[in-house]
Amino acid sequence: MHSGFSSQKFYSIQEATKKMEHYCAYQERCHKEVTEKLRGMNMIPEAIDQILGHLIQENYLNEERFAKAFARGKFNIKKWGANRIIRELRFRDISPYNIKSALAEITNEDYLQTFDELARKRLSQIKETNSFKKKKKLADYLLYRGWESHLVYEKANELIK
Is the pLDDT of residue 3 over 60? Predict the structure, then answer.
C-alpha cells in the first residue's frame, strides 16, 4: 500500500515559476488567482512570495493591467455596468486605485451608449404587457448587471410610458 502522497505532484520553485509564467502569459491574471493556483500546487508561502515577486518583476503579473483588461472585457462582452465591475474587482482584492484606473478605460459616451442599446435590446425581449411589471423586469435585469440605479430607473421610465 502506498501512502496518500504518491499521487500528489511536488514542484520545484523553477518548475512552478515556469508554470506560472505560462499561466500569466495566456491571459491577464490577478495576484489572488496566481496565489491560489500556487497554493493548489502545494507551494509554501515563502516560495509563493518569491514566485510572485519574479512574475511582477518580469511583468508577467501586473494588477493595473489586469484590472483594465478585466473591466474592458466585462463591459464590452458581458455588458456589465460599473457596480458589477467594481464588485468583481474588489472580490479579486484589486486596490481602489487600480479599480479607478480600470473604469477610466471606459468612456462616458461608450458607457451610456452601451447601456441604452442593452436596455432597448432587453426590452424587446420582454413579453410582459403590464407596464409596471415590464419596468420591473427591465430594471431587475439591468441592476443585476451592475448598472447604476438612477440610470436604470430613468431609462425604464423613458422607454416604457
Answer: no
Measured distance CA(153)–CA(161) in Å, rounded: 12
Instruction: Return the minimum-mean-pLDDT range out of 6-15, 66-75, 146-155.
Output: 6-15
Q: What average pLDDT does the segment 140-151 reach?
A: 97
Same domain, 93 and 135: no
Residue 150: inside a domain, yes or no?
yes
100: exposed, middle or buried (Cβ count in 10 Å: 0-12, 13-18, 19+): exposed
- Domain carrying residue 38: 13-57
3-class SS at 102? Answer: helix
Residue 31, in any domain of the structure: yes
Distance of CA 15 to the CA centre of its chain: 28
CB-based contact 16:51 (threshold 8 Å)? yes
Q: Domain tally for the chain? A: 3
In a domain? residue 142: yes
- Residue identified by cell 523553477 is 14
Which residue reads 500546487 in cell numbers?
41
